Amino acid sequence: MMDLCDLTPSYIRDIAPYQPGKPIGELQRELGLGHIIKLASNENPLGPSPKALEAIKAALPEIALYPDGNGFELKSALAARFSVARDGIVLGNGSNDVLELVARAFLGRDTSAIYSQHAFAVYPLVTQAVGALGIAVPARDFAHDLEAMIAAIRTDTRVLFVANPNNPTGTLIPGPILHEALKRVPHHVLIVLDEAYTEYLQPEHRFDAVSWLGEMPNLLISRTFSKAYGLAGLRVGFGLARPEIIDLLNRVRQPFNVSSLALTAAEAALGDGEFLERTRALNAAGLAQLAAGFRRLRLPFIPSFGNFVAVKVGDSARIYQSLLRQGIIVRPVAAYQMPLYLRVSVGLAEENAAFLAALEASLHETA
Ligand SMILES: *Cc1c(COP(=O)(O)O)cnc(C)c1O
User: Fold this and answer.
1) Whose CA is nearest to atom 11 of ligand 1?
2) Closest CA to ligand 1's atom 2
């Protein structure tokens, strides 16, 4: 008799599971207790916004109650911040959830989705999970080749994923170039503009993609509270699009997909501009520190617009293991077709320094 598991759709069995950064607790168990530095998941080294922490503490007694499934308060705060209507916002259990809602609502068998080579791993995952065809368009110098991506659109294409800045490469498509290109995407294709790292952009690189929503009926912008807002553990993100699109996403959304504490924390974090400024400044200094360190070690790296850098170390598996033995977790990116690179998240100054010292030591070890 055939096994139950063999009867699942082959596209499910073919999924290569997402490989998260190694958890601190796991390395601690392997090495015996010790101080571990995790620079593997692009988390905020400052921790959460203090305002978010305060708000959660005040909300704790309410956790016996279901959250507001419509997230009225958070949506109101987001609507005011971005000058959009509440019905133009969908909330997600992390922005991963928003990406999954997009796949469930817009993709399925006999449809295709387009994304770039070296782009965020969740795009192929959510595409494959619903039986759609994923089309990875070769990158150019590790960056999205937008023209090639648009040229790859077929009649069965329903979603175009664009990560800007992209993870794990850190590359940025400048706002005006992105704007001109996206205007040419046919309207049968939903553009998913993933701006998970947009808060890290310095003033000279910033642009307002939200203002394009009015002219582009097929645009969805996804944002997250996991990175600059420091709330990765709570899982909250959101999508902005025209109400008809949001309505479809809400139909496949779990009624209580964002927890009460996540809603409360996100609303408070959104109002903590001071924390965001500190985060941005620390990140800029950290990127400069890492860049200087890589130049000193003569290691090529991809200039990054996010809170992480991809650095070319050569034998990345060996260097990764060596760093682990020294108590430092970074992220291998071989699964992103970057076998010679490691991705390191920007940490506190002392964490970046410890990483650079450990990296130097690992380069000098004989294989
Ligand atoms: C980290 C990241 C996200 C955010 O994921 P969450 O589910 O919101 O934690 C989304 N997109 C990209 C490209 C990312 O790197």
Assistant:
1) 196
2) 196
